[in-house]
Write a structure and sequence with these properties.
With about 200 residues, the chain is mostly beta strands. The protein is built from two helices and eleven strands, in the order βββββββααββββ. About 5% of the residues lie in helices and about 20% in strands. A hairpin with an 8-residue loop joins strand 9 and strand 10.
């Protein structure tokens, strides 16, 4: 199988980022979580950072557009250059593009479901049976191991009952993966913006 062309974009473009928190104290390492059963078995031909519009398709995906941006740093706040960030998630109806996913035949053909760059244009995540809305994230530093985690929507009522989210015992680490999705009409009408900074040990 031909390997997909995965885009790597600078993580420090000031115009792309929200204001950063003060870095006076050590940052909390982003907690590890399960990759889940639906990591892609094949990557889409369209491997840009826009999951909402598939190259060559006339329509875009259903759901609320969300712009997801952030930095990859160490615990001291220093940038980790060359880190590769991947995300995957279900479509607006709660269906993954994966051969073992329930109802996969009904997956929104206008939604990519996977991308490998940072920043992303994607959707506000949707719930599916047994899980609160979330986005899977995998970060691989050059020559290093991958960190797999998940990010969650601040204020989502289902968060209180999600077993994987609440398995993160350290409340600071749990709070670090619960991200506000804020109105971002200045970027795109009716869209949202979320900044998820990922902190790697070492």
């Amino acid at each position: 199988m031909t390997q997909p062309r995965i885009l790597r974009r600078p993580l420090l473009g000031a115009a792309l980022l929200l204001p950063l928190p003060a870095l006076a104290q050590a940052r909390i390492e982003t907690p590890r979580q399960t990759r889940g059963p639906f990591y892609p078995v094949a990557f889409p031909a369209d491997t840009d950072a826009d999951l909402v519009r598939v190259q060559g398709a006339a329509a875009q995906a259903m759901g609320t557009v969300a712009h997801l941006r952030g930095r990859v740093t160490d615990t001291a706040g220093g940038a980790i250059p060359g880190a590769l960030v991947e995300i995957w998630q279900c479509d607006a109806a709660g269906i993954y593009r994966h051969p073992r996913a329930p109802d996969t035949a009904r997956f929104d053909a206008n939604f990519q479901g996977y991308a490998g760059a940072y920043a992303f244009r994607t959707l506000r995540p949707a719930p599916y049976p047994g899980r609160t809305p979330h986005i899977h994230v995998q970060v691989t530093r050059p020559g290093g191991a991958a960190l797999v985690t998940q990010m969650y929507v601040a204020g989502e009522p289902l968060n209180a009952r999600d077993g994987l989210l609440n398995s993160i015992r350290d409340p600071r680490a749990r709070d670090a993966v619960i991200i506000p999705f804020l109105p971002a009409d200045r970027i795109e009408p009716r869209a949202l913006l979320a900044q998820f900074d990922i902190v790697l040990a070492g």
